[in-house]
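Good day; I would like, with your permission, to put a structural problem before you. A protein sequence and the structure tokens that stand for its backbone fold form the material at issue. Thank you for your consideration; the sequence and its tokens are set out here:
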Amino acid sequence: MILEAAIKRFLLFLSRNYSMNRAAKKWGLRYGASRFVAGETIREAISKVKELNAQGLACTLDHLGEFVRSREEAIESADYCIKTLNAIHQAGVDSNLSLKLTQLGLDIDATMCHENMCRILECAKQYSNFVRIDMEDYSHCQQTLTMLHELRKEYDNVGTVIQAYLYRSESDIKALQNVPLRLVKGAYKESPKVAYPAKRDVDNNYKRIIKQHLVSGSYTAVATHDEHIIDYTKRLVSKYDIPHTRFEFQMLYGIRTQLQLSLAQEGYKMRVYVPYGNDWYAYFMRRLAERPANVAFVLKSMVIK
């Protein structure tokens, strides 16, 4: 356990390394990254979405990007989000869009970020599509929720993510009643001052916020690969007679694929988070940190190549 925790901390440290991210763009999707990332181009991503749709799985596409350091890069990221929405519509696939506010310049200029989001939401509105704002680390939490509040004044096709490991999550969900939320455990390394350090406490809080949002009548996406949480959700919706149209399960591309198919076959809505693009490095490092055993898979692929 001590070794696994050390590996996780190291991988999360690497995920924030700008130089490594630049180098990764030159490598391409090798050394195991293609297991978790659907491709580098829109065409590759749409092709994967078609395959998943054919298996009864809905999707959400995310053009990866976190290390945005200029207005030009932020505007370019927003343009790519719009290209993604256009591609989804043109291909006729079942997919939403997910994005990060830091991609759109949140750390550079909040007003510009808001303008970028409005452009994206206008495009999504034309296609009757939905946009999910991914939650980032704790330092961006309140900024994200403030931005969401402003956007919801004009757009109802936008929601966000709440992370169960944060102490503040229950109060945030109360304030976000009737907003479509994706509920997750959380993938960033946070201080015990703001987040539960023990897995048991995170799991218990996760169950609390799932029940809180579902029972309130709000649309809820339960994003987990944990079968105990999935079974808890099934029991909960049965007990409170919550229709399948008011919630869905979500999982990451390349992880627990058989479980994804099983849930779809059972009649549950199952959505796969499908990331793509050449700025995949930070996302890939976090996936390895979540399950350090995946490092063995990466090392094996390096040897084979």
About this structure: The radius of gyration is 18 Å. The chain has a mean pLDDT of 87. Residues 40 and 49 are 14 Å apart (CA to CA). The longest strand covers residues 270-276.
